[in-house]
Design brief:
5-stranded antiparallel β-sheet; disordered N terminus; 13 strands; 32% strand
């Protein structure tokens, strides 16, 4: 099917306020921020998640407002946790907080998951611009810069009218008690698994009837929607299930969409399920994100969940321990 695209270029800016209180760190110590999320100007299909890491590089003690306080030199590194598009980013301390004539408080990088860029360096001489009453506050401006972002034309949207159109269908798909009507040609072009099914003389090809027993109807409906129009609805509700379906039918872009969404929305409640799924389907980037999340939050993880997880996935536990020992 033909995709009609046009080139566009824009940027979207997010203002992040990072307050650390009380701030009492030693030289060499690192502190991670919370994870921030943002959508590009092109909509929710282009989402980025990132966090910052602050490291104290130098420390001394000086007289400040009639009392001795610690003064630090710090560097701030930006870490991209997840992104489902090829974008670039710029991070800088917001104007008005300091006077930057040389651009040294600005850094650029790619929005590829797992990449770090920077750092932004704050010297001891400038430290008190961010310090007040035993806390530091950094106001960072995160800008998404987009080049050549494709916009899908209405031509592709017209394929939606073929979804479950019984009159124009030539194959029926049975999922539990629900029937879906589809076109063999479209299924074959979009999925090599369906192509092999129809070309190999299997029963499905002869009867024009497919029975699917390992996917729920609402999940398969979104699989079909993706096959026809390249989009899904309800990704936030069924990303785990859609990832399994994408792996089964070799739908690489749907797989990346699911991995990206799961990586951007890792929480303590979902991280173990996400890590197990990533290990099962060899989603290495998603697995690395989950492992990094666990390493950052290991002290607050539920011990009861850990026991059952460790028993079922000793190889993934070994990956977590390896990542922790290398920090």
């Amino acid at each position: 099917m033909e995709l009609i695209c046009k080139t566009d270029c824009t940027s979207t800016v997010f203002h992040n306020r990072w307050e650390i209180a009380p701030f009492d760190c030693e030289q060499g110590e690192q502190l991670p921020s919370d994870v921030f999320h943002g959508y590009s100007a092109h909509g929710s299909d282009y989402e980025v998640a990132w966090h910052y890491i602050l490291e104290v590089t130098e420390s001394d003690q000086v007289l400040h407002h009639n009392r001795f306080v610690k003064r630090h030199a710090v560097k701030i590194t930006t870490v991209i946790d997840a992104c489902n598009a090829q974008l670039e980013a710029c991070v800088e301390l917001e104007p008005g907080v300091y006077h930057d004539n040389g651009g040294k408080y600005k850094t650029f990088g790619k929005t590829k998951s797992g990449l770090q860029f920077g750092p932004i360096v704050v010297s001891r001489e400038n430290y008190f611009q961010f310090y007040s009453l035993e806390k530091v506050t950094f106001r960072l401006k995160f800008s998404i810069i987009e080049y050549s972002v494709p916009k899908i034309s209405e031509v592709l949207e017209n394929y939606a009218s073929l979804l479950s159109n019984e009159q124009l269908s030539d194959v029926t798909i049975h999922v539990d008690q629900k029937k879906f009507y589809a076109q063999r040609a479209i299924l074959s072009v979009r999925s090599p698994v369906f192509a092999a099914m129809f070309q190999s003389g299997m029963q499905e090809s002869a009867l024009n009837r497919i029975v699917i027993e390992d996917i729920e109807p609402d999940v398969f409906e979104e699989v079909l929607r993706f096959i026809y129009v390249g989009k899904v609805k309800g990704l936030e509700r069924m990303a785990h299930e859609l990832l399994a379906a994408a792996d089964k039918y070799v739908l690489d872009r749907l797989r990346k969409m699911c991995e990206g969404h799961l990586g951007r929305h890792i929480t303590q409640e979902t991280v173990l399920k996400t890590l197990a799924l990533a290990g099962l389907y060899h989603a290495d980037e998603l697995k690395d994100q989950a492992v990094r999340f666990i390493c950052r939050n290991i002290k607050t993880m539920q011990s009861t969940e850990w026991k059952s997880f460790a028993h079922a996935h000793p190889d993934l536990v070994a990956d977590i321990l390896s990542a922790m020992s290398s920090k």
